[in-house]
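Our consortium's second objective concerns turning raw sequence data into structural hypotheses that experimental partners can test. To show how far this objective has progressed, the report includes one record in full. It was chosen at random from the queue rather than selected for favorable results. The single chain below, 413 residues long, was entered without modification.
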Amino acid sequence: MIVIGLSSGTSVDGIDVAATRLVLDGDAVVLTPLGHLEIAFPDGLRNAVLDALPPAPTTCEAVCRIDTALGQAFADAARRGIDELAGGRADLVVSHGQTLFHDVADGAVHGTLQLGQPAWIAEATGLPVVSDLRARDVAAGGQGAPLASVLDVLLLGDRVAAAGAPAAALNLGGIANVTVVGAGEPTAFDTGPANALLDAAVRRATGEHQDTGGVRALRGTADPDVLAALQREPFYGRRPPKSTGKELFDPGYLDRVLAGSALLDPARVADLLATLVELTAVTVADALRPYGVAEVLVSGGGARNPAVVAALERRLAPARLRPVESAGLPGDGKEAHLFALLGFLTWHGVAATVPTCTGAPAPTLAGRISPGAGPLRLPDPASPPSRLRVVPPARTTSTPGPTRPGPTRPGPT
């Protein structure tokens, strides 16, 4: 199948679109990345989402309008993905949506809300849509996160076997999350903030959205006393599985925790950013240290920040920090390819969660399916794959046909 994956993370910095060819081949799922786009939100939508995030008050009217506008934006992104990445031909769209709230209390997740009405996507593309990927795991007693653990466990297995040592995958979005394979049962969890507090600090001091290229952080000097104060956050001491989000690390977090600190002066923003870079690096390193990993594959927006990468390399040593591209996956589009994989597994009746990673007692199918223009024709359930093979796309000069209104086959054999 050719699957279009759509993702927008906690940084709310745009829509990632990936086109992925996926085939079940014995005990392996073969993933071919066909391409990736980063699409900015329409004017005003990003601010509307940020303004509605807790602890800000909002209304049902605002939530409805955001849900609709996000659905329309994801629909436009899916059409572009089909046309520009898949040659006008695809079988399925998978949309994670935009997380507005992840309800965590005393370490347990009681609910999760992702907006972006999938009906707009199905109507615009004529294709079936898999969406709402986290809720079933939460209903089963899990954290609903990190969903990346499904791809990571499949991807890391062969590398662990070849190296004879545990390995980890690290994603640096608004929140940092890790998956560890080879140190007993696979485990995955959020380690704390990555871009969330960095972006909040820049926005607070300058009105800009991010510290592009880490230029300000690289000019600053980390404050050890402020770093120590930030490390006292109770979340870091909780045992996995655990998850978090902007419900905890919201734009007002720094003002609450660092009230009265000189680093909150906008003139000291470079030093504050340098300190927050160290916070991300030290909390990731502390979280991984018990597992004795030899290699860490990094992806996400934070992997483009030289200040963050340098701090991680220093804190993680002797473990090697390597880009996920070294395993064949594009770093910027990894999560969109991940969601394409999750939807593909759901389409084939295969559970798309790892219980030891999310904390649920059993694996569950991920998401719900919205029909496209035609009737749903699901294949017979497949056996769960145990390996992932990433292969580059074959070069071709042929031109694919037009987008189909729905899958014309029950799935690959």
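The partners drew two points from this record. Residues 397-413 have pLDDT under 50 and may be disordered. The two ends are 10 Å apart (CA to CA). Both points have been shared with the crystallography group to help prioritize constructs.
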